[in-house]
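Students often ask why we bother predicting the structure of a whole assembly rather than each chain alone. The short answer is interfaces. A chain on its own may look different once its partners are present, and contacts between molecules only exist in the joint model. In this exercise we take two input lines together and write out one structure for the complete complex. Read the inputs first and try to guess which parts will touch.
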Amino acid sequence: MLTFVVRRLLLAVPVLLGVVFVVMLTIDLLPGDAVTLMLGEHATKEAVAALREHLGLDQPFAVRYLEYVARLARGDLGRSIQQNRPVARELADAWPATLQLTIAALLIAAGVGIAAGIVSAVWPNSVFDAIARLASLFGLSMPIFWTGLVLIVVFSLWLNWLPVGGAGSLSHLVLPAVTLALPSVAMVSRMTRSAVLDVLGEDYVRTARAKGVAETWVLGKHALRNAFIPILTLLGLQSGQLMGGAVLTETVFAWPGLGRLMVKAIFARDYVLLQGAVLVFALAFVVINLLVDLSYGLLDPRVGRQG
Amino acid sequence: MTAWSRFCRNRLALLGLALVVVLALSAALAPWLAPLDPTRQSLVEKRARPGGKYLLGADEFGRDILSRVIYGSRVALLVGVLSMLIALVGGLLLGTLAGFTGGWLDAVLMRGIEILLAFPYLLLALAIVAMLGPGVLNTTIAVGIWGVPAVTRIVRGSVLTLREAEYVGAARALGAPGRALLRRHILPNIIPGLIVYATLFMANAILLEAALSFLGLGVQPPTASWGLMVSTGRDVLLVAPHVATVPGLAIMLAVLAFNLVGDGLRDALDPRLR
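Now the answer. The structure tokens for the assembled complex follow.
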């Protein structure tokens, strides 16, 4: 088990180095120049050259990449250009908010999606099933930033129940978390429905029913346990989509997280900060999928023995 | 039963198709359908409520929202179709290359593709747009590149399976050159799957274009793009909610339409997947 975890984490290193490479190359090819942007259009040539040298931008790409990786190994992510603060500190300030938001959304997606999917599968083609499937179609088609604005209009402007934006209390979390969760709720309920329907058609479920096992036990012990593996895979993938969606949700609700930091960094051409933010997102994605892989072993004993 | 008649029995899919036709017509006939000039400003009538002269209201510059929504369908469809072509061409080239050559080239390509696929879709598109800069063309390129990895994987998978199929082996035994195998025997069998993917891709492309434009990194003002309209409406959300919500409704209907058609096509072309 431990060797499996260590091996997986080591495998993540080349992926992360690849991500850093791609991001740095991307920024390197940016048409806009960070230095001119910082100093303004009327800066003297000498000032621009001096700042370029100070930021290390006069070095060739390969040198900068290796230096960045070397500093990364020591936990140094550089200093952000705009704020001139250590990037590690800026990221540390922002990531708890994003983590809070994505975990809340993931819980909603898993809870509501799985419950709706199970009910749909147990009573297929019922009224509930029809409504749930229609709702999931809408859930997948609504642009997340627009859903957020509509929720603000309904729950903040008309009903005056919840705050428009910002962070700080549980009531601030409700609207962003629901907004972010909606597309995933739709995906998870669809997937759960088909996974549970598949398992309910299996021979072992028929056998269990034939020998008189209570229906709730058939569902809980035989069906759901087996259906959970594809659902879990999907939840892992959804967490990646949630991080992408967090960029939009945080922008809509002025949520002080990584996504908003990233958009700000793009607009400010703050490439050092942008690199750090992308790296954190990539790392989070690797860790989540590792957790998903590990949980297979808990649900399906066969996986554990092979690993 | 043919695929088309199976498709026609699916009422939701037909509804989707009808919506797609409406969308295409509104894009093609925008100058005749739009009641007013989409760029005409009227500051005295800014944020006019829906009804009267402005059927869906006016935005913060007093521009007619209905006209802008109609013109916006052009941007949505243009970006969607062009980025779909980029994704299909790129994915077909890379996928057949990887599937047919195999070996280290296949291994390296697919590792890269897996990394790209693992990346949250919006972050990838953001990175590409950050590189290219905003604008309609660059947004199209970013959305198209975002679609390449998935198409590559579908094509490669089909090529690998079909390459081993008996009829392809038979054609090869009869001396058919590799190019003929690909064109006559393999590509025609990939196409149904690709049509389904391309339709669903349109839905996602429209969403992605809207998201990028909403963030201010996609289509730039004064072009009428739905995402951009939602973004500008956001500033006046609390005084004039219709400015942001009406264009968003258009995005949702367009995405819903392509999702319905895509689902319907998948069920019709491959009944086993139901």
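Check your guess against this: Chain B has a mean pLDDT of 81.
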